[in-house]
Write the structure tokens for this entry.
Amino acid sequence: MKQKIIIVCGPTATGKSDYAVELAKKIDGEVISADSRQIYKGLDIGSGKITKKEMRGVPHHLLGVASPKRTFSVAQYKKLADKTIKDILSRGKTPILCGGTGFYIDAVIYDQSFPEVKADAKLRKLLSKLSLEELVKKLKNLDPKRLKTIDTKNKVRLIRAIEIASTLGFVPKKSKRKPLYSAQWIYLDFPDEVLKQRIHARLFARIRGITTEVTRLHKEGVSWKKLEALGLEYRYGALFLQKKLTKQEMLEGLEKAIWQYAKRQRTWFKKYAK
RNA sequence: GCGUCGGUGGUAGAGUGGUCAAUUACAUCAGACUGUAAAUCUGACGCCUUCGGGCUACGGGGGUUCAAAUCCCUCCCGGCGCA
């Protein structure tokens, strides 16, 4: 008998957090965040992290548990989430997995196993100098099976596959998509125009807080490069503070980027619609 | 007013007689996704098509040429210089 878990997903700015709190109150649940940016400590305003007050007494997990100075990965998330879910269930409560990072949700629900191969900075640096063709050739020698499923135009993926293959000698087979829990999916969304308006309104309400937050993070030692890689609010905030963008350019570019992100999220979640 | 440089697809911006429906970037639309996933990557992107091709397009009009976004004339618009 599989245990029950509820998933609240959907694109950004659809009110997932509020919905999850409401639901948790009704069914005596606890919320587990599935958000690749809210996982970091100090990324609050820009990531739209729920505040203590908004939690209204409902326990929340996996918010602000990683350092933004270090790289955090799905594999780590998966481990933490598993542990948390087990804990919640053991106390007789219902876990509510809530967030917009499809990959994270996927990793938890479908019990994906990730190979124990850590990032090798030296190897990555070396490989990043190679062309796509050379990388493909390398992977072909190391693990021809993986080559069949990989996106041969995606350098980042190729490098990771080679990294795994050259350490383990092969790339572990993709685990089957077998659901671990009996999941109840709740997908939140709005028509395009409405969602665009919500994104716009939220951005303007938060823009001040965003720049002060990014300033603070940089002072605390998070590099511009890292901030730019964090994307959206952090990328545009960092570009603006470095004077690489005007305020106007930041606002326009960021709003556009958030919309593009929302659509990518939709694309991901469409998979589950069937 | 004279001179001069320029007006190209949603935008920026290449091209300067044929191989141009027009490099490229951005935007837009669709999609992928097993260790950075708010990241990274892919495809489509004038209109029509029986997928062979057809049609309309590089400010407007006229012309030269077998052939023009590319050359000439003229008109309109913008920048700059001289008045």
